[in-house]
Design goal:
about 700 residues; alpha+beta; Arc Repressor Mutant, subunit A; OB fold (Dihydrolipoamide Acetyltransferase, E2P); 17 helices; disordered N terminus
Length: about 700
């Protein structure tokens, strides 16, 4: 429940918000004190005096300007921006402004108004600083979410829903008659119905009672809802999907290139159900090999305007939590109709390459196809064959592995980042509880599939980019990755110097090559994982764009996403645009593609956040019975409130609060990017080896609290 503020302070904040809104909605109006009082119905002398003080204060901070004696007008001096609000655990905010012309703007908690995490807001800069600007939220342009999962806190005649994730929500006031039977301590799904201007908290009602706190199902629903992600399909979408059958239309088959007699197989994770890509291989008479990259033809079944299409755009991608998948499309499509399951005929959209055993591509072809998968491999199955075991289609797999390694070598030589991906995977028991942590590494079988998917994605993007309709570029969705931010790379270099390494960061074109060289040198050292993680964090985030700037991390001039339309809306759109071009049809998509790119990029970030929170939740479950135990670990993060440690035995990460570091009073040094003792000068840096004890675990906060153990 939100703490009550002093009445006068609360009144001043409320009046300030109302006055800001008056001028924001009437930017050309010049109003004197008397007119403002009349507009907001301020009649009492004490309140009218307070209004005058607020007007003067807003003028001093630059929100208003005086156009005459005591006449005020909105100061439209170019300090107004729109962007997405991100909220910290402490209640402050940062607005990520559209475009690259300005860095993120800090919002003090008192200037948040009614903004919630993820909202699109209009702001004004009120203070300019050397490192960051500070702003105030004028109004919410678009509310990101109105539904939240949280815990009911009962009072005599009302209740509050306290959201599980304080960074995206605020306590919601709920009348007793709107509780739908929820009791104190229950988890519930509630929605905001109205947010009065004069109130700190919005009013709402319970939609669904989820039961007592705890339980993996409830926690996963909480994570999804509080990120603004749907976890159920509505009836219209499900009904539409159930009309689709596995049987293929013979007339449609006749229109497609037929690969049903060509050797075809899939290679996927052992627990995969949505197989959206397959490889075919056929020896040609000239000694070359024809390799087909066949992708589930979702666009054949999901057409623009359908309920499934609208829902797919709304979701934008599938979400992979620790114990479940929240698909972008209903299971009838994702796991049945479109999934390239073995021994079933399927419609596909394919990129076909004529290639020699040195990896040189002679010809490429794109188009609609029909396939029949002969075999389903797991990555483990294919890896055993690559490492020498006998198995079906051994020669074909070894050929594809050889070519993939050549393609990868060429890519790295061109400056692509050489990242060895590692994922934390939990082994769950029959009740869904974590019993073991596994670190999944990318092996040759994974890289085989990766390289052929990259080849298809790159080739489709290049084909479209080089085509012109008249003199204009074809409207398209590119997967872009910008050059690294200088400040982040400098911070990374400062980080590696702690380990007595150094990289040349003066030439942006060579940064990835220099980082690759460093990672190769330290591949078998203890600090490799940590340094690689920090290298990834120093890079820009990849996004979807209509303006092609290339992909820095892959060292590709042209790149898109074509290979996963079951789980990514971007790929579905790329299929549609590519087919229009192949049929020489007029392209339907123009200006709206930019909005689509913004949405799918935003939803991708939400999915990543949900996946991270899911992992943190299962980490807390895994160590619940390890409270009091001591572990060795590595400092994996540093902040002004403490340091993060990744423990060796369980691979989980916890926080050592600043006050729990023994032996001195410690503080965060921004310049050294280290935690330093005031008296002793002792430093804690990234990568330091430490000993910690787990002293508290909160599954609700997804947090493991540690205390430092002195040797």
């Amino acid at each position: 429940m939100t703490r009550k503020k002093k009445p006068k302070k609360k009144l001043k904040q409320s009046l300030s918000h109302i006055i800001r809104k008056v001028f924001s909605e009437n930017p050309e109006s010049a109003l004197n004190h008397k007119q403002v009082c009349a507009l907001i119905d301020a009649r009492e002398s004490a309140i009218r005096k307070l209004v005058f003080n607020i007007l003067e204060s807003l003028t001093k901070e630059g929100f208003l300007k005086k156009t005459g004696h005591s006449i005020y007008q909105l100061n439209q001096s170019g300090n107004f921006f729109e962007g997405i609000l991100q909220v910290t655990q402490r209640g402050a905010g940062f607005v990520v402004v559209d475009g690259d012309e300005i860095s993120d703007i800090y919002i003090d908690p008192k200037n948040m108004q009614q903004g919630l995490g993820g909202d699109r807001v209009k702001i004004q800069i009120i203070k300019k600083g050397r490192s960051r600007n500070e702003g105030v939220i004028l109004n919410v342009v678009e509310r990101e979410r109105t539904q939240f999962v949280g815990t009911i806190q009962m009072h005599d005649n009302f209740a509050f829903l306290v959201p599980d994730n304080s960074r995206v929500g605020t306590d919601i006031y709920i009348r007793k008659e709107k509780l739908k039977g929820a009791k104190n301590g229950d988890k519930a799904l509630a929605k905001i119905t109205v947010w009065p201007k004069s109130q700190d908290n919005p009013y709402g009602e319970v939609i669904e009672v989820l039961g007592n706190t705890g339980g993996n199902d409830v926690e996963m629903i909480s994570i999804l809802v509080n990120q603004g992600l749907d976890y159920q399909f509505n009836e219209d979408v499900l009904s539409e999907s159930e009309t689709l059958t596995l049987e293929l239309d013979k007339k449609e088959i006749a229109k497609r290139r037929d690969f049903r007699d060509v050797l075809t197989f899939t290679i996927d994770p052992h627990d995969a159900k949505d197989f959206d890509d397959a490889l075919s291989i056929k020896k040609l008479q000239n000694g070359h090999v024809e390799v087909g990259v066949h992708i589930a033809d979702v666009s054949h079944y999901v057409r623009p305007g359908m309920a499934m299409d609208k829902e797919a755009l709304k979701r934008s991608n599938s979400v992979y939590l620790v114990d479940r998948v929240i698909p972008m499309l209903p299971e009838q499509l994702s796991n049945m109709v479109c999934s390239l399951r073995p021994n079933e005929e399927k419609f596909t959209f394919s990129a076909v390459f004529e290639i020699d055993d040195n990896g040189k591509v002679y010809n490429e072809w794109f188009g609609k196809t029909v396939i029949h998968s002969d075999r389903r491999y797991t990555y483990e199955d294919a890896q055993e064959i690559i490492e020498g075991a006998d198995g079906d289609f051994k020669d074909e797999i070894l050929f594809l592995d050889k070519v993939a390694k050549i393609l990868r070598k060429k890519r790295l030589k061109s400056g692509a980042m050489n990242i060895e991906s590692k994922e934390m995977r939990f082994q769950l028991d029959d009740q869904g509880n974590p019993i073991k942590v596994n670190i999944k590494t990318s092996k040759d079988a994974n890289k085989l599939i990766e390289e052929f998917m990259l080849l298809a994605n790159r080739s489709v993007a290049t084909f479209i980019y080089n085509k012109k309709k008249g003199q204009e570029k074809i409207p398209f969705i590119y997967r872009c990755h910008d050059k690294p931010d200088t400040a982040k790379v400098e911070l990374f270099n400062l980080f590696v110097k702690k380990f007595e390494y150094d990289i040349d960061i003066n030439n942006p074109e060579k940064i990835s090559t220099n980082i690759n060289a460093l990672l190769e040198d330290i591949r078998y050292k203890n600090e490799f994982d940590l340094i690689q993680t920090m290298a990834i964090r120093s890079m820009s985030k990849a996004t979807y764009e209509t303006d092609n700037i290339g992909h820095y991390g892959l060292a590709f001039d042209n790149y898109t996403h074509f290979t996963s339309p079951i789980r990514r809306y971007a790929d579905l759109m790329v299929h549609r645009i590519l087919q229009e071009e192949l049929l020489e049809k007029k392209h339907k998509y123009n200006n709206e593609l930019e909005d689509v790119c913004k949405r799918i990029s935003r939803m991708e970030r939400k999915a990543v956040e949900a996946e991270r929170e899911s992992t943190k939740y299962f980490q807390t479950l895994f160590v619940l019975d390890q409270i009091g135990q001591v572990f060795e670990g590595t400092v994996s993060g540093i902040a002004d409130f403490g340091l993060f440690v990744r423990m060796d035995n369980n691979m989980c990460e916890g926080l050592v609060p600043m006050l729990e570091i023994p032996g001195d009073r410690y503080s965060f040094d921004q310049d050294k990017y280290a935690i330093i003792g005031t008296k002793t000068g002792k430093e804690y840096n990234f990568g330091d080896r430490v000993k910690v004890r787990i002293y508290e675990v909160s599954t609700r906060k997804r947090q493991i609290d540690l205390e430092m153990i002195e040797d």
